[in-house]
Design a protein that fits this description.
Elements (H helix, E strand, L loop, with lengths): L1 H20 L4 E6 L2 E5 L7 H9 L12 E5 L2 E5 L1 H4 L2 H32 L27 H33 L3
Parallel strand pairs: 1-4
Antiparallel strand pairs: 1-2, 3-4
Helix pairs in contact: 4-5
Protein backbone atom coordinates (compact mmCIF):
# COMPACT_ATOMS: atom_id res chain seq x y z
CA UNK A 1 0.00 0.00 0.00
CA UNK A 2 2.84 2.37 0.86
CA UNK A 3 4.49 1.66 -2.50
CA UNK A 4 1.26 2.46 -4.33
CA UNK A 5 0.84 5.75 -2.48
CA UNK A 6 4.48 6.68 -3.04
CA UNK A 7 4.13 5.90 -6.78
CA UNK A 8 0.92 7.94 -7.03
CA UNK A 9 2.52 10.91 -5.25
CA UNK A 10 5.64 10.69 -7.43
CA UNK A 11 3.54 10.49 -10.60
CA UNK A 12 1.50 13.50 -9.48
CA UNK A 13 4.70 15.49 -8.84
CA UNK A 14 6.09 14.60 -12.26
CA UNK A 15 2.87 15.64 -13.99
CA UNK A 16 2.66 18.90 -12.06
CA UNK A 17 6.29 19.72 -12.92
CA UNK A 18 5.62 19.00 -16.60
CA UNK A 19 2.57 21.27 -16.49
CA UNK A 20 4.53 23.96 -14.66
CA UNK A 21 7.33 23.89 -17.25
CA UNK A 22 4.86 24.51 -20.06
CA UNK A 23 3.79 28.10 -19.37
CA UNK A 24 2.81 29.59 -22.69
CA UNK A 25 3.76 33.22 -23.03
CA UNK A 26 4.02 33.02 -26.84
CA UNK A 27 2.28 30.78 -29.36
CA UNK A 28 3.45 29.49 -32.72
CA UNK A 29 0.99 28.95 -35.57
CA UNK A 30 2.04 27.23 -38.80
CA UNK A 31 0.19 27.73 -42.07
CA UNK A 32 1.85 26.06 -45.04
CA UNK A 33 5.41 27.35 -45.20
CA UNK A 34 4.72 30.33 -42.91
CA UNK A 35 5.23 30.42 -39.15
CA UNK A 36 3.70 33.09 -36.96
CA UNK A 37 4.70 33.80 -33.36
CA UNK A 38 2.31 35.86 -31.26
CA UNK A 39 1.02 36.52 -27.76
CA UNK A 40 -2.62 36.51 -26.72
CA UNK A 41 -2.36 39.97 -25.17
CA UNK A 42 -1.29 41.66 -28.44
CA UNK A 43 -3.59 42.38 -31.35
CA UNK A 44 -2.58 39.84 -34.03
CA UNK A 45 -2.11 40.69 -37.67
CA UNK A 46 -4.57 39.52 -40.32
CA UNK A 47 -2.22 36.66 -41.37
CA UNK A 48 -2.04 35.38 -37.79
CA UNK A 49 -5.83 35.56 -37.44
CA UNK A 50 -6.24 33.54 -40.66
CA UNK A 51 -3.70 30.99 -39.42
CA UNK A 52 -5.51 30.64 -36.09
CA UNK A 53 -8.96 30.32 -37.66
CA UNK A 54 -7.81 27.78 -40.27
CA UNK A 55 -6.24 25.45 -37.68
CA UNK A 56 -8.63 23.43 -35.49
CA UNK A 57 -6.06 23.08 -32.70
CA UNK A 58 -6.47 26.78 -31.77
CA UNK A 59 -9.35 28.60 -30.11
CA UNK A 60 -10.46 31.76 -31.94
CA UNK A 61 -8.82 33.75 -29.13
CA UNK A 62 -5.44 32.22 -30.11
CA UNK A 63 -4.79 29.85 -27.21
CA UNK A 64 -4.74 26.08 -27.51
CA UNK A 65 -8.01 24.21 -27.75
CA UNK A 66 -6.67 20.82 -26.62
CA UNK A 67 -3.04 20.72 -25.51
CA UNK A 68 0.31 22.15 -26.52
CA UNK A 69 3.92 21.15 -26.99
CA UNK A 70 6.31 23.63 -25.49
CA UNK A 71 9.78 24.79 -26.33
CA UNK A 72 10.52 26.95 -23.31
CA UNK A 73 7.69 29.49 -23.24
CA UNK A 74 6.88 29.11 -26.97
CA UNK A 75 3.93 26.76 -27.40
CA UNK A 76 2.61 24.98 -30.47
CA UNK A 77 -0.96 23.77 -30.19
CA UNK A 78 -1.63 20.09 -30.89
CA UNK A 79 -4.69 18.45 -32.44
CA UNK A 80 -7.13 16.37 -30.41
CA UNK A 81 -5.75 13.16 -31.92
CA UNK A 82 -2.33 13.91 -30.48
CA UNK A 83 -3.62 14.95 -27.07
CA UNK A 84 -6.10 12.13 -26.59
CA UNK A 85 -4.00 9.12 -27.53
CA UNK A 86 -5.27 6.94 -24.64
CA UNK A 87 -8.71 6.17 -26.10
CA UNK A 88 -7.52 4.97 -29.53
CA UNK A 89 -4.83 2.87 -27.86
CA UNK A 90 -7.37 1.31 -25.47
CA UNK A 91 -9.76 0.58 -28.34
CA UNK A 92 -6.93 -0.99 -30.33
CA UNK A 93 -5.98 -3.23 -27.40
CA UNK A 94 -9.62 -4.38 -27.14
CA UNK A 95 -9.63 -5.13 -30.89
CA UNK A 96 -6.38 -7.10 -30.58
CA UNK A 97 -7.78 -9.08 -27.63
CA UNK A 98 -10.99 -9.91 -29.50
CA UNK A 99 -8.98 -10.90 -32.58
CA UNK A 100 -6.78 -13.23 -30.54
CA UNK A 101 -9.83 -14.74 -28.84
CA UNK A 102 -11.39 -15.45 -32.22
CA UNK A 103 -8.12 -17.00 -33.38
CA UNK A 104 -8.16 -19.33 -30.37
CA UNK A 105 -11.76 -20.28 -31.19
CA UNK A 106 -10.73 -20.90 -34.81
CA UNK A 107 -7.83 -23.17 -33.83
CA UNK A 108 -9.97 -25.10 -31.32
CA UNK A 109 -12.82 -25.54 -33.80
CA UNK A 110 -10.42 -26.61 -36.54
CA UNK A 111 -8.90 -29.23 -34.26
CA UNK A 112 -12.29 -30.60 -33.22
CA UNK A 113 -13.57 -30.62 -36.81
CA UNK A 114 -10.40 -32.37 -37.98
CA UNK A 115 -10.72 -34.98 -35.23
CA UNK A 116 -14.29 -35.69 -36.26
CA UNK A 117 -13.84 -35.81 -40.02
CA UNK A 118 -10.20 -36.38 -40.93
CA UNK A 119 -8.34 -37.99 -38.06
CA UNK A 120 -9.67 -41.50 -37.55
CA UNK A 121 -8.17 -43.22 -34.56
CA UNK A 122 -9.31 -46.69 -35.48
CA UNK A 123 -9.53 -47.96 -39.01
CA UNK A 124 -13.05 -49.16 -39.85
CA UNK A 125 -11.85 -52.66 -40.87
CA UNK A 126 -10.23 -53.09 -37.43
CA UNK A 127 -13.48 -52.44 -35.57
CA UNK A 128 -15.54 -55.39 -34.37
CA UNK A 129 -18.78 -55.92 -36.25
CA UNK A 130 -21.08 -54.35 -33.68
CA UNK A 131 -18.90 -51.34 -32.84
CA UNK A 132 -19.14 -48.04 -34.68
CA UNK A 133 -16.44 -45.49 -35.20
CA UNK A 134 -15.83 -43.38 -32.04
CA UNK A 135 -17.58 -40.01 -32.18
CA UNK A 136 -16.00 -36.73 -31.09
CA UNK A 137 -18.62 -34.75 -29.13
CA UNK A 138 -19.39 -31.53 -30.99
CA UNK A 139 -21.99 -28.83 -30.68
CA UNK A 140 -24.33 -28.22 -33.60
CA UNK A 141 -22.52 -25.06 -34.74
CA UNK A 142 -19.13 -26.85 -34.66
CA UNK A 143 -20.22 -29.43 -37.23
CA UNK A 144 -20.35 -26.89 -40.04
CA UNK A 145 -16.77 -25.78 -40.93
CA UNK A 146 -18.00 -22.51 -42.47
CA UNK A 147 -19.50 -21.48 -39.15
CA UNK A 148 -16.96 -22.97 -36.77
CA UNK A 149 -13.73 -22.25 -38.66
CA UNK A 150 -14.22 -19.71 -41.42
CA UNK A 151 -16.42 -17.22 -39.56
CA UNK A 152 -14.15 -16.81 -36.48
CA UNK A 153 -11.10 -16.67 -38.74
CA UNK A 154 -12.56 -13.84 -40.82
CA UNK A 155 -13.65 -12.05 -37.63
CA UNK A 156 -10.15 -12.41 -36.16
CA UNK A 157 -8.50 -10.98 -39.25
CA UNK A 158 -10.96 -8.07 -39.33
CA UNK A 159 -10.46 -7.28 -35.64
CA UNK A 160 -6.68 -7.38 -36.03
CA UNK A 161 -6.81 -5.06 -39.05
CA UNK A 162 -9.16 -2.64 -37.24
CA UNK A 163 -6.83 -2.76 -34.22
CA UNK A 164 -3.83 -1.76 -36.33
CA UNK A 165 -5.77 1.07 -38.02
CA UNK A 166 -7.12 2.39 -34.70
CA UNK A 167 -3.66 2.16 -33.11
CA UNK A 168 -2.18 4.24 -35.94
CA UNK A 169 -5.15 6.64 -36.24
CA UNK A 170 -3.70 9.53 -34.16
CA UNK A 171 -0.58 9.52 -36.33
CA UNK A 172 -2.63 9.27 -39.55
CA UNK A 173 -4.88 12.15 -38.50
CA UNK A 174 -1.89 14.33 -37.66
CA UNK A 175 -0.24 13.61 -41.00
CA UNK A 176 -3.42 14.41 -42.92
CA UNK A 177 -3.81 17.73 -41.07
CA UNK A 178 -0.21 18.65 -41.78
CA UNK A 179 0.87 19.17 -38.20
CA UNK A 180 4.51 18.48 -37.29
Amino acid sequence: MKTFLWTAITLTEILSRAAAQCRCSRYLCRSGENEYSYTIEEMPSQEIIQCILSNKAYNPRGDCRYCSSCDGSLCTCQTSGTCESFLPRAAAVVCFALGLLLLVITVRSTWKWAQRTVLVRVRPDELPENQVRPEVPMKVWERNPRVSVLLPCVGAVLFLIVGVVVWASPDLINQSQGSP
